[in-house]
Amino acid sequence: MERPAPAEQQQGEDEALQDGRPTADSRMQAGGAAHCGEARGCMKVVGKLGKTGEPGGRIRGDLPRAKQDLSNRAISNWYFLLNLQPDVCGMAGPTSARISSRHPLSVPQSYSVRSPQGSQLAIRAANPLFPCVKLSKARAVVAAAMEVSKASLGLANRQPSKDVLETWRNADAVCFDVDSTVCLDEGIDELADFCGAGQAVAEWTAKAMTGTVPFEEALSARISLIKPSLSQVEDCLEKSPPRISPGIADLIKKLKAINTEVFLVSGGFRQMIKPVAFQLGIPTENIRANQLLFGTSGESAGFDPTEPTSRSGGKAVAVQQIRQDRGYKTVIMIGDGATDLEARQPGGAVLFICYAGVQMREAVAAKADWTVFDFQELIAELP
User: Fold this and answer.
1) 336 is annotated as an active-site residue
2) What residues have CB less than 8 Å from 377, skipping those under 6 apart?
3) Which of 172, 179, 340, 374 is catalytic?
4) pLDDT tens for each residue of 293-331
5) Which of 62, 87, 177, 185 is catalytic?
6) 355 has which bridge partners?
């Protein structure tokens, strides 16, 4: 189908306004991602970002300049979250994004749209075969990336000290948080979405990660809301497999090459973390996480309260146990939340590195020994 010329397109928008019909801008403002019903029921999604980065303006050809005004590493990771191709800043052509299989919009086939002047960001909505970021959150994601970049400017720990670098290079073991660190998502939130309890559970997750409520209280509340059966957990993993953060596989490979042991220490669930560990080559005995319990028919029976990671301060206990059991002298914790920061305790982690490439929690980042937005920053400082 032939594209309308820019003048014709603008005329059509003006007529739509006069007739009271929704325009592209009004559709965007209403949902964060516009979709128009062609005869084939296809969808086009046009991102929006003003020159100053304010949601609501169009993404124009000066996006590279806007990107440079942000923290390059932080914003590049947010583009990864959107599954945008690296050449997005060049505006050379349409960029692809995948829609979650749980997204309410139905996309019967792939459909690509180019902007009239080649200066706007066009996104091709592909058939949703795999889970991914919801396009309706696109503007919020970009806005969050900008907040990350602003906050990072005031952090004194963006450049590690000599002592921190020395410790990092000679660590016996590194313990990684999983959700929003090793993986792009919060596993329990993904499971909640799958089971239809997403919004309520996400609110409890935010409280737990910022430390505003005891972790055990947040965990118990979330499991009570979800009540996941064994079959639901299995279906969730099959249909919405965890998404690995960019650069983490390379970092773990590098750590193994210098004989640094790698552990996964998480407030999430072993059932959902084991596939991640397998993919990254981490043995299951190096997982410290919670355990979902099920009845004889596979119904939810809560979680195992004896796991250290099921309560506040649990990651500190888990890391202390790792250090004691393995006889390590130097253990480092890497994560994004308050529970990860807690692991820096006497007899536990000697350093806490805040990874803010997915979630930026300013109160946590400010207390870290080193804050990074890209795992390449850590790789670059290894021998």
Assistant:
1) no
2) 73
3) 179
4) 999 999 999 999 999 999 889 999 999 999 999 999 999
5) 177
6) 372
